[in-house]
Write a structure and sequence with these properties.
- This protein is mainly α and 130 residues long.
- The chain has helices spanning 21-26, 37-43, 57-70, 88-102, 109-114, 118-129.
- The chain has a single domain (3-45, 55-129), classed as Non-ribosomal Peptide Synthetase Peptidyl Carrier Protein, Chain A.
- The chain is built from six helices and no strands.
- It is globular.
- The N and C termini lie far apart (61 Å).
């Protein structure tokens, strides 16, 4: 009898806008499954940053490197290196150019494959610069 009673707050009763599925699908995780808080924070817009406002120095240099390697003009912070045509060979070139622009070992290759979105790479560089 009780199994036939439907609770009033089932998922199908909640509007799709109220379900956090998009957020859950986009959450940043370490390889061991823990949530990477630094990567989540890096995805937040910078304080006072408006759409179309100038990029911080790290993002501007990184965008220039991406434009050169990927031969694209428009780069969004949510763009993925590999979705824009990046390959393993281009990733090696990017790591070398990032090291040249920011200093050695600010973008270890293993971290590039863990997070290949523009904002994730910028966060990795920022974190490794100290």
């Amino acid at each position: 009898m009780l199994s036939q009673v439907k609770p009033p707050f089932r998922a199908e009763h909640i509007g799709s806008l109220l379900r956090p599925t998009a957020l859950l699908q986009q959450r940043a995780k370490f390889a061991r499954g823990e949530i990477d808080a630094a990567a989540l924070i890096a995805r937040l817009p910078a304080e006072g940053a408006a759409e179309g406002s100038p990029l911080p120095e790290i993002e501007e240099k990184l965008a220039s490197i991406w434009r050169s390697i990927l031969k694209v003009e428009d780069i969004s912070t949510s763009d993925d290196f590999f979705d824009l045509g990046g390959t393993s060979l281009k990733s090696v070139r990017m790591v070398l150019e990032v090291d040249e622009a920011f200093g050695q070992d600010v973008l270890p290759p293993d971290q590039l494959f863990a997070g290949s979105r523009f904002d994730e790479i910028a966060a990795i560089i920022r974190r490794n610069l100290g």
